[in-house]
């Protein structure tokens, strides 16, 4: 039985941010106990058919009246057609980074990190049905707006489920956060939005620059320079969209020595200058 790496097999079909992805999954043949390596947390909004997921020490089965929020990990799942000989669900993937940003923005930082079972059952209602219909706009929206729309939609469904399930859902969201982070990753990710250079971050990791680069590529499957630049430019974009700071206020904070270099890198990344956002 081959292992399906999800959402990687879907994200190749769409040019979207690696932090958020919506995918329409349809099939016309029953799939029994497929092996799945789920590398991101995932909403499975079931609309037609049945689904059963097997975890290490439990399992859950849902029909089209329910949906699931699944924790990333290695799971077995079974997908069954309904009487119309079709199976259909909308999958909404989100990174831990986006989850952390949401929790910091909308919940109390002191919420306990309880160990929960690796799934949360969602009862489909009129609001969720309307929400799922609204996701179809992402297929027709200009690509420049897709990433922003995804973020808005992610916050919308998370806020709605917080209001619907209250503390139970909040505790579950905190349980999705990785408890074990390697010292290397801890240093890297705590300095993502700093203005430190690669050599300086390597020093904090007690590594030479060449060793740091090799280790980084093994951990993140990407060169550190590009990874850090993308993260910092996205942070700059988020700050500018809030409308409180000018490009001249933030370029040092996101790792650039002068405004000109920052503006060039920003335009190369997003196709517009930082002044056009502000």
TrEMBL record:
SMART domains: HTH_ARAC
Keywords, sorted A to Z: DNA-binding, Transcription, Transcription regulation
Pfam families assigned: ExsA_N, HTH_18
InterPro entries, per the entry: ExsA-like_N (IPR054015), Homeodomain-like_sf (IPR009057), HTH_AraC (IPR018060)
Domain HTH araC/xylS-type: 182-278
Protein name: AraC family transcriptional regulator
Keyword Ligase: no
GO molecular function annotations of the record: DNA-binding transcription factor activity; sequence-specific DNA binding
């Amino acid at each position: 039985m081959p292992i399906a790496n999800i959402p990687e097999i879907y994200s190749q079909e769409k040019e979207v941010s690696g932090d958020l992805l919506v995918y329409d999954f349809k099939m016309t043949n029953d799939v029994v106990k497929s092996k799945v390596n789920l590398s991101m947390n995932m909403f499975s909004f079931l609309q037609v058919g049945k689904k059963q997921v097997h975890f290490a020490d439990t399992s859950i089965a849902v029909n089209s009246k329910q949906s699931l929020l699944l924790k990333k990990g290695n799971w077995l799942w079974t997908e069954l057609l309904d009487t119309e000989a079709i199976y259909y669900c909308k999958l909404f993937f989100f990174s831990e980074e986006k989850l952390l940003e949401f929790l910091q923005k909308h919940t109390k930082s002191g919420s306990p990190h309880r160990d929960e079972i690796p799934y949360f059952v969602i009862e489909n209602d009129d609001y969720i049905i309307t929400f799922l219909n609204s996701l179809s706009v992402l297929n027709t929206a200009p690509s420049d707006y897709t990433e922003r729309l995804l973020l808005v939609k992610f916050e919308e469904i998370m806020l709605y489920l917080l209001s619907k399930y209250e503390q139970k859902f909040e505790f579950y969201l905190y349980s999705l956060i990785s408890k074990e982070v390697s010292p290397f990753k801890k240093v890297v990710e705590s300095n993502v939005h700093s203005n430190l250079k690669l050599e300086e971050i390597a020093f904090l990791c007690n590594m030479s620059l060449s060793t740091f680069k090799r280790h980084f590529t093994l951990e993140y499957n990407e060169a550190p320079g590009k990874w850090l630049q993308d993260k910092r430019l996205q942070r700059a974009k988020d700050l500018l969209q809030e409308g409180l700071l000018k490009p001249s206020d933030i370029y040092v904070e996101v790792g650039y020595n002068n405004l000109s270099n920052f503006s060039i890198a920003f335009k190369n990344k997003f196709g517009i200058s930082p002044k056009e956002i502000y």
